[in-house]
Amino acid sequence: MKVELSSLLNSASGRIGNSIIQSNGSGFIAKKYVSNRNNQAPKKTAINSLFVMFLNQWNALSLENKQSWSTKAATFPFINNLGHVYHISGYNLFMTLNFNKWNFSQSIISTCPDFSSCSSATINIDTFEVSFSQLQITYTIPSDRIYGILLFATPLLNTNRKPRSSDYRLMYSAAPISSASTNFYTAWTTLFGAPIRSLGSISIMCRLINIADYMSSQDSFDYESSIFS
After folding, report:
1. Which domains are assigned to the chain?
2. Is the separation of the CB atoms in 224 and 167 below 8 Å?
3. Nearest CA to 224 among 206, 207, 204, 208?
4. What is the pTM of this model?
5. Mind listing the pLDDT tens digit for each residue in 21-58?
6. At 207, phi and psi to the nearest 5?
7. Nearest-CA neighbor of 124 among 214, 202, 219?
């Protein structure tokens, strides 16, 4: 059962008593809270610890610095799945940029950078070949700025199942990076703890990051799947 909340609310999230308040795209709903304390996967635990670290860093900022993040956040455009541009709060921008920096093993930034990402920057996966001995990826990135790349991969999936967003795990990151052709077989087997020994499908997702401000450039994603049978 779900309960639709009053249309007078324009922003709400979190837990109230035994209910979780969430946005469903057209309004807000309240769902029953179910504790999952004893089922914390290592990946989720690590992300939670990282979130707490960034939260403590945010809380330690001065009011003037937080206001600067809030002001500059209005200049950082984000695009939803429908192609609409939206903006986030200074707090969420702080979290987003620092999560991106963490993926490149960079230190936390406390001062908000100026937005400088190129809206037309794209990354293209030219070839993606998978076999029992290789996971070869050739990609091309623009040369107008200095970019980093985040490469996500799925485990070996049944060919009849489309990958979900939760299937993707970070396999490789590098900054700066240029166009290249690389065999990521060892990286994949290390990530998922097993060699490729059966038939199926593996999907990858590339994400382009502008090193100047650690923002994902608009349209900077590319997806590719390789099926071998």
Report:
1. 3-32 (no CATH), 37-103 (no CATH), 124-228 (2.60.40.10)
2. no
3. 204
4. 0.64
5. 454 444 444 454 455 555 555 556 767 788 899 999 99
6. -130, 130
7. 219
